[in-house]
Amino acid sequence: MIPSVLPTYARAKLNFVEGEGSWLTADDGRRYLDLGAGIAVNALGHANPELVAALTAQANKLWHVSNLYEIAGQAELADKLVAASFADTVFFTNSGTESAELAIKMARKYHFDNGAPERIEIITFDGCFHGRSTGAIAASGAEKMVKGFGPLMPGFKHLPFGDHDALRAAVGEKTAAILIEPVQGEGGIRPVPDQCLKGLRDLCDAHGILLILDEVQCGMGRTGRLFAHEWAGITPDIVMSAKGIGGGFPLGAVLATEAAAKGMTLGTHGSTYGGNPLAMAVAGKVMDIVGAPGFLDAVSRQAGRLNQKLEGLIAAHPDVFESVRGVGLMTGLKLAPKVSAGDFVAAGYEAGVITVPAADNVVRLLPALNISDDDIDAGIARLDMAATAVKGAA
Q: Which of 67, 69, 87 is nearest to 78 (CA)?
């Protein structure tokens, strides 16, 4: 008999009832150090007092009116994002998947309005993840994502990750855009080298196509810059955002240049809940905190501390770990072939630490951006316990 909650998740037998900072408390009273942050969502930790205060103040005034009217906070947050980024304009969504849908529409509409309606193809890469809507799974093309859900939306070319020759050969008269994550998350914490991002920008410019960056997971300070592409010093045309932008409240956004967005005129897109007053109040405070002087420098310092200790952990358990990779506080532990990511995550639960599995036999560490020194030390100790446990079970 099917349960009342559609069984599409292989859920761990954990029921968290309270959170504070980097810690979660389960219904049995046990505390867990959260190094997953809801998959990079709780960027400022659980129940952050400033976010709670912003949400509570707004909840006592107004929740929803729809985008038929001006919405408190939208212009303020958009102004902050524009001032801090490459973008000229912002559309607010509820999730990364919705951001992907708009980015796809925006790129195709751009070429349609420029007299090239045949330019509908969007190039993506193996290991990518852009959401689970029909458009987003078509962009991924991975069998585990698309099997049984055809016919798929046409207009996507899927290329091997890092194959420059295949990329150059794939660009043609129908190409509308290149869509890529500066750091693949679900794909196993695979950063795109800065020189490759620069090369993608040059390729797009040479062929008159758009560069779309999916920064749903790697954006909003996760790498030590507001957006990960800033490390490469490039300017994209469109950026997808979500997860950390709301600090735990559902929110997404599409940031774009004026040129890329010019086709999205009255009636071409909409959202019932996107940019609602509650989300704007919380995300506005997130931007204030992440954008405060010194905050992103502190993220980089904590990333350095975490990675140094992870290197020591790897040295202590060479039969469990192969390497550490990533950028900032978007870190992946590559496991040895005899240890599966699922087994290590489960061992982490027993040790009281939350991690997130990914492809390529990688475990993701995506802690709160304001994680403390003590919590990093506690996390390393618990990861060490998990490593000892999986080694003993092998």
A: 87
Question: What distance in Å separates the CA atoms of residue 340 and residue 319, rounded to the nearest whole number?
Answer: 12
Pick the CATH number of 50-290 from 3.40.1000.20, 2.60.40.10, 3.40.640.10, 3.30.470.30: 3.40.640.10
9: region left, alpha or beta (phi > 0 left; psi from -120 to 50 alpha): beta
Q: Record the tokens describing residue 185, joined without a space.
A: 């998350």
pTM of structure: 0.96
Question: Which residue type occupies 239?
Answer: V
Q: Would you give the distance in Å from CA 280 to the centre of its chain?
A: 19
What residue type is 298 in one-letter code?
A: A
Q: What is the 3-state secondary structure (H, E, C) of 80-114?
A: HHHHHCCCCEEEEECCHHHHHHHHHHHHHHHHHHC
Check whether the bond before 151 is cis (ω within 30° of 0): yes
The DSSP string of 356-394 is EEETTTEEEE---TT--HHHHHHHHHHHHHHHHHHHHH-
- Own/partner pairs, 6-14, CB within 8 angstroms, 24+ separation: 12/346, 12/349, 14/349
User: Which parts of the chain register pLDDT below 70?
Assistant: 394
373 CB burial (10 A radius; 0-12, 13-18, 19+): exposed
Per-residue pLDDT of 305-334, as tens digits, reads 999 999 999 999 999 999 999 999 999 999
Structure tokens at 174: 């129908």
- Where are the domain boundaries for CATH 3.40.640.10 in the chain? 50-290
Question: What span, in angstroms and rounded, lies between the C-alpha atoms of 47 and 37?
Answer: 12
| Alpha-carbon distances, residue 3 vs 6, 7, 178, 212 (angstroms) | 6, 7, 41, 39
Could you give the CA distance from residue 266 to residue 256 in angstroms, rounded to a whole number?
16
**CATH class (in words) of the domain with range 16-34+294-393:** alpha beta
pLDDT confidence of residue 394: 62
Q: Please, are residues 100 and 130 in contact by the beta-carbon 8 Å criterion?
A: yes
